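Whiteboard transcription, Tuesday session. T.W. wrote the structure tokens on the left side:
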């Protein structure tokens, strides 16, 4: 059995603040709050999407906070979404941190009266930067889609 070092109270506080950032991202996505979602990123943040994790080539790569608007606007194509964040592994090193978070993202569509549910199993590979005011922001977010399933959804 492997034991991990017990983090200091300061590190525990930093990890909680970072997890709040991760959860706020999902909340903003589900509430269609694109400006709120964008505010969680540094101005020069990178956002990289891998729809096929077996390929080293990303499906999409954005190089600034301002470029994120169309990505977040794409969620408006769904009637509703629900992002369930699961476990996170976060490593804090001063004003920088890295992490991996699992998420099951549910996307409900209604087209011509037919409801479908697309579920995506996502891993977010993140780099975080602590700001001068103490807030943590994403400096890089890699969205890794491990699998998707689309099925009919009952009304």
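and on the right, the sequence the group agreed on:
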């Amino acid at each position: 059995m492997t034991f991990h070092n017990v983090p200091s109270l300061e590190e525990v506080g930093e990890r909680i603040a970072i997890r709040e950032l991760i959860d706020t991202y999902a909340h903003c996505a589900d509430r269609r709050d694109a400006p709120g979602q964008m505010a969680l990123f540094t101005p020069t943040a990178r956002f990289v999407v891998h729809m096929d994790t077996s390929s080293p080539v990303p499906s999409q790569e954005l190089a600034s906070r301002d470029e994120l608007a169309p990505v977040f606007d794409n969620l408006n194509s769904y009637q509703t979404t629900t992002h369930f964040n699961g476990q996170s592994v976060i490593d804090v090193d001063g004003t920088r941190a890295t992490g991996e978070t699992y998420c099951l993202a549910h996307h409900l569509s209604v087209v011509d009266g037919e409801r479908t549910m697309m579920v995506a199993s996502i891993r977010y590979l993140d780099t975080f930067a602590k700001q001068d005011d103490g807030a943590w922001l994403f400096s890089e977010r890699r969205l890794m889609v491990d699998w998707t399933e689309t099925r009919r959804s009952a009304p």
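Someone added at the bottom: The two ends are 47 Å apart (CA to CA).
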